[in-house]
From TrEMBL:
It comes from the Bacteria. Pathway: Alkaloid degradation; nicotine degradation. Keywords: 2Fe-2S, Iron, Iron-sulfur, Metal-binding, Oxidoreductase. The lineage of its organism: Bacteria, Bacillati, Actinomycetota, Actinomycetes, Mycobacteriales. One of its GO terms (molecular function) is metal ion binding. Coiled coil: none annotated. The keyword Protein transport does not apply. This is 2Fe-2S iron-sulfur cluster binding domain-containing protein. It comes from Mycobacterium lentiflavum.
Amino acid sequence: MAVREQPTPAGPPRSSHAGGHTEIRIRVDDTDHRVVVDNRTTVLDLLREELGVTAPKKGCDHGQCGACTVLLDGRRVVTCLALAVAYDGAVIVTAAGLGDRDALHPLARAFVEHDGFQCGYCTPGQICSAVGMLDELKAGAPSYVTEDISRAPEFTDAEIRERLSGNLCRCGAYANIVAAVKAVGR
């Protein structure tokens, strides 16, 4: 039986420590971090427990609710399913990194203006997902409900609802969330 060599991973070499720990570098909301993580640590647990970044929430811990959604290298990702060691060198933007109290991100402002939240637990994930969704639409990426995938998708309520379907709101503010996204995406 022949033994096949595994290809060497691209990127800088990682420092692996005894006990299944790896040193990674990660940028979160414009702050660089260098941290040793257990190889089983999710990005969500790294953010909340190691780095004290609490905008992403732990809802289901199964990738089904979207409360932990952030922008990871510009794409929306549910962080409860993403292992931190896989994202060495990554850039993460949470809802907190999209703006601040004095300069709200346009989507955060629209959520306020359109009552796009009630309890607010899902709001950081909803906002990050909406930012990612708008970027996908601008890039022409089709969704399940895009009628003609040979053309750029239209900015419709159906597109917004489909693209945000991975983010649950137990308070049921969906109509207002769609209105907020629609106001910004025009």
